[in-house]
Amino acid sequence: GQFILSMSKLVGEEFFCEVIEENNKQFKGTILAVDDSNTDLRIIRKLLSSEYKLLVTDNPNSALSQLQKDHIDLVLMDIYMNGVDGITLCERIKRNAMSNTIPIIMCSSSPTQNNVIQAIRAGAVDFLVKPFTRQKLIEKINKHLIKNNVLLNS
């Protein structure tokens, strides 16, 4: 299905590593979404925040510190970002002993065969093409949460 998202302009800092959660809600896991597009982060929030504890950042560098201080079950990351690209960030996450077991799903709106190969070589467990449906996104996330024993296979 398709959905229409209306949004107001955000002032820069409001979006920085914002935690979206409801109190006393049972979430399926904690996901860190890293994308330099606030529009894409809003879409991801809309698609996922009802089922997962969601942390979002539009700053690839802050993603690394977020992984050190919060318990993250999965990272959803764009390939093309300003500053540090997703492939480089993926390699950094995988080189760090504290975060190297966290599954990373890379995504891109213009994937090339080379991108996909680079992402997998860098340590990504999966690849998603934007735009994606909610069903496809949740399917891929749950697959890797089950694989990492975060979610029970029901």
List keywords for this structure.
alpha/beta; 6-stranded mixed sheet; 5 helices; 6 strands; 36% helix
Distance between the termini: 25 Å
Number of helices: 5
Radius of gyration from the alpha-carbon trace, in angstroms: 15 Å
SSE topology string: EEHEHEHEHEH
What is the helix fraction of residues, given as a range? 25-40%
The low-confidence runs, each spanning 5 or more residues with pLDDT under 50, are 3-22
What is the β-strand count? 6
Q: What class do helices, strands and sheet pairing give? A: alpha/beta
Strand content: 15-25%
Characterization of the model:
With 154 residues, this protein is an alpha/beta fold. The protein has five helices and six strands; from the N terminus they run E-E-H-E-H-E-H-E-H-E-H. It has helices at residues 38-48, 60-69, 86-95, 113-122, 134-147; strands at residues 18-20, 30-34, 53-57, 74-78, 104-108, 126-129. A six-stranded mixed beta sheet has the order 1-3-2-4-5-6, sandwiched between helices. Helix 2 packs parallel to helix 3 (86-95). The longest helix has 14 residues, at 134-147. It is globular, with a radius of gyration of 15 Å. The two termini are 25 Å apart. Mean pLDDT is 85; it is low at 3-22.
